[in-house]
Amino acid sequence: MAKFRKIGILTSGGDAPGMNAAIRAVARKALDEGVEVVGILGGYSGLIKDNVIPFTPRTVSNIISRGGTVLYSDRCPEFKSEEGMQKAIDTCRRHQIDAIVALGGDGTFRGATDLTNRGIPTIGIPCTIDNDITATDYTIGFDSAMNTTMHMIDCLRDTCESHKRCNVVEVMGRDCGQIALFTALASGAVAAVIPEVPFDEKEFLTRMNTLVSAGKRSFLVIVSEGVLTENGQKYGEVLAKKIDAETGVETKFARLAHVVRGGSPTLRDRFTATEMGVRAVELLMQGKSNIVICEIDGKITELDINYALIADRMYKNKLKPGDLDAFSAQEIADMKALAAQRAEEMSTVYKMVAETSK
Ligand code: ADP
Ligand code: F6P
Would you call 206 helix, strand, or coil by DSSP? Predict the structure, then answer.
């Protein structure tokens, strides 16, 4: 029995391939359950500015294969203020929106909690190319962004080999090195430089010089945008100059930036987006809210948003005083185990990059 008569869908923060597939799944499943659906255009600013459109099953036709988000996205500082939040709640009341499904990253989920606390039940679906939400093994968009990144690096490999060059490639990920690390492994790079693991520059340059002497012609080094020098400069460009100067290998620098955030989603992203979208509606129908849909050990499941946000802060060493007060000893132990597991996963792949690049 439907608990809600009308739900709203919004996409917020950085867009991600697969967001459209998730919008489609949420809309079709809800309509199938007899629940009305509206789309909120432009993330939380759409709620503040009352940009709301009705959805029919046809509104989401032909979007499963499209990158970006047909609902548009935004970063909306005003939503963090009490005044902005109140405007958003007023819009929900005006349109009789009973619940919201919010697609985005951790910032989006903080906003979702604020809405739930003010009487609009909200469920989050993790969508970000960064895969930086600790509580879930996977975020929609990660696979597509990595595949685009890998294809770009493959192109650079061709020209590096022809010209006996090195290419340092900076990739997105904010403070999370997963895109850099995984694409480095998958494209046979000699090194991945990521925020999570200290980079031994001296050891790397020695290793590279040894490989040059042994006749290796071309080199790829993948650097996450989150790695900065002591002066706050992006490290990738700095490293490219050092490699050029200290190995004698002509070295180019490439910043892939937003190009990997667009494009058609992979099967993995369309599939997971559909599974998560359907689950979000099922949970709303059961009267649940303030949860984030997760993928854990290959299964779609759900976690309390507050738990997910604090587990995330713990892994990122950003815990604030009092953050753990609301959690049981068992929950805190689980968060610690999760943080240790994430660190272990990163260091295993990191080692493999060096072991397989000879
Ligand atoms: P992402 O969701 O990808 O992490 P952002 O961090 O930019 O992206 O957050 C997206 C939006 O979520 C912000 O523009 C803001 O409107 C909202 N938001 C972020 N942090 C908070 C917060 N602490 N409280 C309420 N809303 C927030
Ligand atoms: O979170 C997704 C992401 O693409 C990050 O990888 C990157 O650091 C950031 O967003 C870029 O944000 P913007 O689109 O505002 O430049």
Answer: helix
Longest Cα pair distance anywhere in the chain, in angstroms? Answer: 71
C-alpha of residue 12 to centroid of ligand 2, in Å:
12
Say if CB 51 and CB 97 are below 8 A apart: no
- Contact 211/219 with Cβ under 8 angstroms? yes
173 Cα nearest atom in ligand 2 = 6
What is the distance in A from the centroid of ligand 1 to the CA of 22?
Answer: 19
- Which are the catalytic amino acids? 130
pTM: 0.96
Report which secondary-structure segment, H or E, holds 181.
Answer: helix 178-186
Distance CA 127, CA 105 (A): 6
Ligand 2, from 15, 130, 224: best to mutate by most atoms within 8 Å of Cβ?
130
What value does the mean pLDDT take over residues 124-152? Answer: 98
Q: What ligand is nearest to the CA atom of residue 76?
A: 1
Q: Is 76 in the pocket of ligand 1 (CB under 6 A)?
A: yes
pLDDT at 1 over 80: no
Q: Angle at Cα 247 formed by Cα 244 and Cα 250, nearest 5°?
A: 40
The Cα 112–Cα 100 span in angstroms is: 8
Position 234 confidence tier, pLDDT thresholds 50, 70, 90: very high
Atom of ligand 1 nearest to the CA of 105: 2
Asked if 221 contacts 239 with a C-beta cutoff of 8 angstroms, the reply is yes
Own/partner long-range contacts of 347-353 (Cβ < 8 Å, ≥24 apart): 347/197, 349/181, 349/182, 349/185, 350/181, 350/192, 350/194, 350/197, 352/185, 353/181, 353/184, 353/185, 353/189, 353/190, 353/191, 353/192
With H, G, I as helix, E, B as strand and everything else as coil, classify residue 172. coil
SS3 223: strand
As a whole-number percent, the residues of the chain with pLDDT over 90 amount to: 98
All domains of the chain in start order, with CATH: 6-141+265-318 (3.40.50.450), 143-262+345-355 (3.40.50.460)
Closest CA to 305 of 293, 317, 320: 293
Determine the average pLDDT of the residues in 14-42: 98
